[in-house]
Structures are given as C-alpha cells and as structure tokens.
Amino acid sequence: xxxxxxxxxxxxxxxxLQAILSPxxxxxxxxxxxxxxxxxxxxxxxxxxxxxxSTIINGRQLNELLTYHEHYxxxxxxxxxxxSMSSEIATYEDFLHSTCEFALLVTDSQDVTIYxxxxxxxxxxxxxxxxxxxxxxxYITSHNDSRTRLSCx
Length: 153
Hints:
By secondary structure, the chain is an alpha+beta fold. The chain is built from 4 helices and 9 strands. The chain is 22% helix and 38% strand.
C-alpha cells in the first residue's frame, strides 16, 4: 500500500511549497504548521520566518503566503486537516487514525516527504513532482518507510 512519496528539491530560494502543493485544493483544509524553520526571501536575502510560530492557518492564508513570497526552506512540518484538527500526529499510525489528510515534511532544505490518505491525490502529487523536475521521486510504502516520526526534527 502506498503511504506517500519522497523526493528532492533544489537547495535554493524559490516558491517550492507552492509548486509541491499545487495539486491540492488548499482552501479545503486547515493547515497546522509546527516547529518550522524557513524564511521569506526579500531582495535576495533571508528576511523573516515564513511562519513566525507554530500556528493553524486556513487555506486562503497559506495560498497567499506561498504565492506572494519567495522562500528558502530549511525545515517544514505542515499538516492538513479537514474539517478540524485532531490530536498531535507523532507517528504514521497517529496519522491514519486522525482527521489529518496530508502531511508535508521538508528536512535539510531539500528532502521532501509527503504522506497522503487520498490515493488519487497521491498520484497527482507524484506526477506533479515529476513534472516540476524534482529528483528521486519515489512512492513510500509499508516496505520502504524508514521514518519513525512524522516530524521534520
């Protein structure tokens, strides 16, 4: 069974979150941002944190943030909930038994891991990552998932 996918993005400034999330209807979810370290880029320099603190934002706010700001990702932990957030998601089993539909983790500026409950959306995310030229796009299954925690730390 496919749990998600992993791939590598370039280690540079850009709008990679917008590219990664483009197949997802952002407005359909509440987004929980946890312990993130990524920056808005202004005038070619790192400026303020992309998400100043752990927070819950709606899809419209997330879309605006990602559309209007170039960013540099270091660590990202974003989870999508529909209609409301459930308890803390620490493991894949927690994810399965929660109202969380989607988890996006970025580590070390370029390693992206996505977990998604919807098989059609997962296929769209895979095709989207390939279309954007991201490297080493691979499905995560129960046989190759070495992650013990659903966290970027």
